[in-house]
Prior knowledge:
Elements: E1 8-9, E2 12-13, H1 38-46, E3 54-60, E4 62-63, E5 75-76, H2 81-97, E6 105-113, H3 121-134, E7 136-147, H4 154-162, E8 167-173, H5 177-183, H6 189-201, E9 206-213, H7 220-231, E10 237-242, H8 264-280, E11 284-286, E12 290-292, H9 297-304, E13 308-310, E14 313-315, E15 321-325, E16 330-333, E17 336-340, H10 344-352, E18 358-363, H11 366-381, E19 383-385, H12 397-409, E20 413-415, E21 418-420, H13 429-434
Parallel strand pairs: 3-6, 3-15, 4-5, 6-7, 7-8, 8-9, 9-10
Antiparallel strand pairs: 1-2, 10-12, 11-12, 13-14, 16-17, 17-18, 19-21, 20-21
Helix pairs in contact: 2-3, 2-10, 3-4, 7-8
Amino acid sequence: MNTTVMNVINGRVDLFSARVPRYTSYPTAPHFHAGVTDATLRQWLHDLPEGMPLSLYVHIPFCDTLCWFCGCHTTVVNHYSPLQSYLKHLYAEIANIGPLLKGHPVTHLHWGGGSPTILAPDDVRGVKAALEESFAFAPDAEFAVEIDPRGLKQPMVDALTEAKLTRASIGVQDFDPKVQQAINRIQPYEETRDVVNALRAAGLKSLNIDLIYGLPYQTRANVARTIELSLSLEPQRFAVFGYAHVPHFKKHMQLIRDETLPGAEERFEQFELAHRLLSTAGYTAVGLDHFAVPEDSLAIAQKNGTLQRNFQGYTSDDAPALIGLGASSISALPQGYIQNKPEVPEWRKTIEAGGLPVARGIAISEDDKLRRGIIEKLMCFLAVDLALFGKTTADFPREMAALQPLIAEGYVVVEGSVLRVPQHARAAVRLVASVFDSYLANSKAVHAVAV
């Protein structure tokens, strides 16, 4: 196994230095290639079984300020004309791909960014109307939007309500002023609270709060206080992510000095603290880093074994096909993955020529499907029964050998054909999943630490 993935020192696994993918897909995005084209996507869409449900993801790659911790594909703008141009071409992309998917009901819609709420309220209405014109939405379709509460006013709340928003995902990260200053995201608790109250007053019933641990100057006391304030907002879900410091990949992260970041053990303690506080508050731990009230669909999906994982994280969305719209968005289809051109000028140029803006992708083999299933089960349930795939541990001699240090550490328990990550070792689940990643050992991609 690649030593940058798992370091074994004197027989013990150094969990803190392990660098592995987040496994929101398998194979992961670094292994996509240009051999997957516009023609590939058209064929894959044509071959979808009639009536297969769809999820849609719409990417809005713009913000009005740059958060230094951000790993998203986005551009900072100080006037609205780039968004007007982008929307013109987004409408064209929607109109181009919609006819290829007639007869497929849309059951889930997610807008991400960037900051989707950077759009003008009338443009929120316009994008939703364009989608409804080109796609057939199920009557009970879920509609989630990632929201930056800074500067969000009532007209935006009204527009989202009219667009039939069902879940808001509010970016918080940390409420401590010093941490906020260090990541260039000044967001007082009171402003966030007021936006949440406005959304609730408009009838929104499902709220997700995004938090991050491992940020500059962040301590366990910061994490505890942020969780205390966030709990007062009474969200149905939490997502608690570890900050991925990759300044070689995202140059603006160089503005965060290494010496301001928590050490490895402090970072791990922040992860454990968040898990303990949210569990004590009555939230069900979902997978590695999500939490939900027991009656939420995410907690129910985990309980009944239908929880899934995609590019937005953990989801109860069971649609077999996800269609990405907008620059850099990724489609996940039964046949494989396809990513749109990430740079807006190239994406725009392809759309103007009447094409589908495909940059790269990967077709998945039968072995990929097997490994994807195993990895997803581990990531979703902290356990996998290889018998579900018609396999036993004997079918994975290389993987079982690689797991031995993890078994010795108590990070993995093997019971017949079942591999299980104990609750106390949940932080190691990405590392366990990586053992089944046949691409990773030869990968040149540099990933964030496992915890």
